[in-house]
Design brief:
It is globular and about 60 Å long. It has helices spanning 64-76, 102-117, 125-148, 165-172, 219-235, 245-251, 263-272, 311-316; strands at residues 5-8, 12-16, 25-28, 34-37, 43-47. Among the domains are: 105-163, Helix Hairpins, CATH 1.10.287.2250; 204-308, Alpha-Beta Complex (Cathepsin B, Chain A), CATH 3.90.70.10. It is mainly alpha-helical and 320 residues long.
């Protein structure tokens, strides 16, 4: 290969933006100098505390996600927006880093904090870049909503800030409107004094701690199991037991309960399996495993049946 060359001293990282319609290149150099032919366009270099040349091992940087977050704006920038830097050849002066655009520094820092706080990781660089762009869009939306709000709510970063609205709805929004698997029955309200307007079951210990369904669309199972947990508390001498949502996913009629379902199906599973195991005995795995049902575990709670109230009765029933 004939000169000119690009000279990358040890301890440098290079991200290249190739011509249009070609793939991006991310070159990591862990030790020793690297000589590249000059046709690589628009090199962008960042100094990183890599091991010294000749080190017997080359560990990853403290966080590869941090590194990618720094390089992301350069990889996504318009072709003409990345400054071209050249070197006279081997032995020339070190190339200086080209910092990310100032307009993206704050979102990048927030995105890194978001990943750490909510333990977020992604399959590859493309997915990381996609989630970062969604995160930026959601930040802008939250800012706009906060500006339009009259102080009744607070908008900002949440565990769902890297999701599109459709993704959030498919994972966490309950389904309504499907005919019940069990006939609707009229509620029988006992005669007597009216109940108080409000009641917080948490204060008397009838509600288990908040659970996290994570990336599985199993809200229907969590809703049904939470209902039984509190009912069991009242029926079993104030004994609160955290029950197994995973058993509902594994042993129910839905082949893939992570794609959504209905609370009625969860109640049917509990009834025909003669109850549920505890969460401790049958822990949550964040996925449905229809071929691994273990309904033979010790029953921690059970139900004899259930009714589904018409929507108007649910709205008109007096407090709890």
């Amino acid at each position: 290969i004939q000169p000119p060359y690009l000279h990358l001293p040890a301890g440098k990282v290079s991200a290249h933006r190739p011509p249009q319609h070609t793939q991006h290149f991310l070159l990591l150099r862990w030790g020793g100098a690297l000589h590249l032919p000059s046709p690589f366009p628009n090199p962008v270099l960042y100094i990183w505390p890599f091991p010294a040349p000749g080190s017997p091992f080359c560990p990853l940087p403290p966080s590869l996600m941090d590194l990618l977050a720094l390089l992301l704006p350069c990889l996504l920038a318009p072709l003409g927006g990345v400054a071209t830097m050249a070197s006279p050849g081997p032995g020339g002066q070190d190339l200086q880093p080209n910092p990310p655009p100032a307009t993206r520094l704050e979102p990048m820092e927030k995105f890194k904090e978001f990943q750490i706080r909510y333990n977020k990781s992604y399959e590859d660089r493309a997915e990381h870049a996609r989630r970062f762009e969604i995160f930026i869009q959601n930040l802008a939306r939250a800012k706009k909503l906060q500006e339009e709000d009259m102080g009744t709510a607070e908008y900002g970063v949440t565990p769902f800030s890297d999701l599109l609205e459709d993704e959030f709805l498919s994972l966490y929004a309950p389904r309504f409107g499907m005919p019940s698997s069990w006939p609707n029955q009229a509620a029988k309200v006992p005669e007597g004094p009216l109940l108080r307007q409000t009641c917080d079951w948490r204060k008397i210990g009838a509600v288990t701690p908040v659970k996290n369904q994570r990336s599985c669309g199993s809200c229907w199972a969590f809703a049904a199991v939470g209902n039984v947990e509190s009912t069991w508390y009242l029926r079993a001498g104030n004994r609160l037991v955290s029950l197994s949502e995973q058993e509902v996913l594994d042993c129910g009629r839905c082949r893939d309960g992570c794609k959504g379902g209905y609370a009625e199906d969860a109640f049917i599973t509990m009834r025909f399996n003669r109850g549920l195991a505890s969460e401790k005995d049958y822990p949550y795995k964040v996925r449905a495993r229809p071929n691994r049902c273990q309904a033979n575990k010790t029953r921690a709670a059970w139900i004899h049946g259930f009714i589904t109230l018409p929507k108007d009765e649910m709205c008109e029933s007096p407090g709890c």
